[in-house]
Amino acid sequence: MLRVGSTTIAESEIELTAIRAQGPGGQNVNKVATSIQLRFDIVASSLPGPWKERLLALADQRISKDGCVLIKAQSYRSQEKNRQDALHRLELLIARVAVPPRPRRPTRPTRASRERRLLGKGKRGAAKALRGRVKGEE
Hints:
It is a single chain. This protein has helices at about 25-30, 50-55, 80-100, 110-130; strands at about 1-5, 5-10, 15-20, 35-40, 70-75. By secondary structure, the protein is α+β, with helices and mostly antiparallel strands. It has a single domain (about 1-100), classed as Double Stranded RNA Binding Domain. The protein starts with a strand and ends in a 9-residue tail after the last helix.
């Protein structure tokens, strides 16, 4: 069971696979599958609807186009620590979308900023008006 806020995710929804870790590590890395690959299907999960929508809308490279979260944990030498790390990262990802984003309230420019803008426009217009043809006395 993975608890995120008030919701729990059953372990049957999370697929954990032990794989060999990449990179340096001597003989141990070639013999022991200490790295953990976590796979979580967002669409088929028991998460609330709005959470699923926000998770699928995230621009996160760990979320595939078909709606699966893939997390690879290989920071630690032991399989159990990597398993805990992968579950923790999934928990953080889901907790990020658990809180709905605050709606953006449009702001209006202040009176002083409008006056400064109009003053600047007037100055630029006056400078450009001086660049015109010189009117001679006729």
